[in-house]
Amino acid sequence: DTAGQERFNSITSAYYRSAKGIILVYDITKKETFDDLPKWMKMIDKYASEDAELLLVGNKLDCEVDREITRQQGEKFAQQITGMRFCEASAKDNFNVDEIFLKLVDDILKKMPLDVIRNELSNSILSLQPEPEIPPELPPPRPHVRCC
Length: 148
Prior knowledge:
Elements: H1 9-17, E1 21-27, H2 31-35, H3 37-47, E2 53-59, H4 71-79, E3 84-88, H5 97-111, H6 114-122
């Protein structure tokens, strides 16, 4: 996540190359963030794999009264991109946030053969290490002593 900051342009191509999923987020209360989506799609087309899952998210649903981009505009943009999903969310209210990531991960996993998933998880930093057979020694319990 570089939040579109220009100073990170030199490293963003590396992020795209290995991405299995990409979430494009715009602010429903700021038209300029929506107007920047074609620029981001050019970056995705240039650097990302065609297999990367794409998700467009209109954020700040909690600011409905200040909305500048309609839901229909977001849906229309997403429909123009093959395979792009669309939803709206509110990070502030935690509305749809978990669902966005869970759905994206689900879509990514559905595309991957099971042996690839197992291999990638076993090579991952996030893979779980087996528990030691002998539990580590714990200090003896302290007697219940009240102070004062």
